[in-house]
Design brief:
Length: about 250
C-alpha cells in the first residue's frame, strides 16, 4: 500500500464515520423530546455532515478517479463503507443516542486535536475547523449523560442500559488498519492506541459524575473498518441513497 492509497482510505473512513453518524443523529429532527434539543441535534448532524463533505471531497481528489463527495456518499454499497460500527447503530431512545454520541465524541475530539498538527495541510485544515464543533458536541453529550445518569431512576436505568449495549463497539475505535499504521509511522495521523488514555480519562470522569458504571465486558465487536457491518447500515443506506439511486446524477 502506498502512502497515497493509505491517505485515501483514511480520508474516506473519516468521511464515512461523520456521514453515517450525522445521518443517524438527523433522524431526531422533528422527533426530539424538547424543541431546543430538536434544534441542537439537527445542528450537530449538520456539523458532522459538513465534516463528511470535506473528508469525502479530499478522498476523491487523492483517489484521482473522478469520484466526488456525492459519488462516494451515494454510490457505494454497505460493504464499501469503512466506518466504525458504533456510528451506524440505530438511534434507539434518546438516552441511547446520547450515550452513542458521548462515546464517539470522547474519541473524536482528541483525534481531531492531533490531526490539527498534521503535516498534511488538508487534514490539518479540516481538523482545525472541526475541533471547535466537536468541543461543543462532547460538552453537550456529557451534560446530557450526567443529566440522565444522575436524574430519575428511569433515566439512570435507560442510560446504563444504553451504555451496556454500546460498550462493545468502543474497542474498534482504537484498532488501526494497515493504512492507519502507515500514516501514523509517517507522522501524518496519530497512533490510535495513544488516544485511549484521553478517552478513558474523559469517559471515567463523566461516568463518575453521572453515577453510571463502566461496563466490565472485554469482548469487542469489530469489522466496520474492513467493510463488515451490522444489518443496520444497509437499511440506513437504502433510505439515504434512494433519490440518487433512482435518479442518477440528478441536480436541483
Amino acid at each position: 500500500m502506498t502512502q497515497q492509497e493509505a491517505l485515501f482510505r483514511f480520508a474516506l473512513r473519516m468521511g464515512d464515520n461523520t456521514l453515517v453518524l450525522g445521518h443517524r443523529i438527523s433522524e431526531w429532527c422533528g422527533h426530539a423530546p424538547v424543541l431546543e434539543e430538536d434544534i441542537a441535534q439537527a445542528n450537530i448532524a449538520l456539523d458532522l455532515i459538513g465534516q463528511a463533505r470535506n473528508y469525502l471531497a479530499y478522498a476523491g481528489e487523492v483517489e484521482g478517479k473522478g469520484r466526488g463527495e456525492d459519488a462516494l456518499a451515494y454510490l457505494r454499497d454497505s460493504r464499501e463503507y469503512i466506518n466504525a460500527l458504533i456510528t451506524e447503530q440505530p438511534k434507539g431512545d434518546f438516552a441511547h443516542t446520547i450515550v452513542r454520541s458521548f462515546l464517539w465524541d470522547a474519541f473524536h475530539l482528541p483525534l481531531l486535536k492531533a490531526l490539527a498538527n498534521s503535516p498534511d495541510e488538508r487534514l490539518k485544515g479540516i481538523a482545525e475547523k472541526a475541533v471547535k464543533e466537536v468541543t461543543y458536541h462532547l460538552r453537550h453529550s456529557s451534560e446530557w449523560l450526567v443529566r440522565f445518569g444522575d436524574g430519575t431512576g428511569e433515566s439512570h436505568d435507560r442510560a446504563q442500559a444504553a451504555l451496556n449495549d454500546l460498550w462493545r463497539f468502543t474497542g474498534e475505535l482504537f484498532e488501526a488498519d494497515d493504512a492507519e499504521r502507515l500514516l501514523a509511522k509517517a507522522g501524518i495521523i496519530p497512533q490510535l492506541e495513544n488516544l485511549k488514555a484521553d478517552w478513558n480519562a474523559t469517559v471515567d470522569g463523566v461516568l463518575k459524575e453521572a453515577t453510571l458504571q463502566r461496563p466490565a465486558g472485554e469482548w469487542m465487536a469489530s469489522g466496520g473498518k474492513h467493510g463488515m457491518h451490522t444489518e443496520h447500515l444497509g437499511l440506513m443506506l437504502a433510505e439515504m441513497q434512494v433519490l440518487q439511486r433512482t435518479h442518477p446524477g440528478a441536480t436541483w
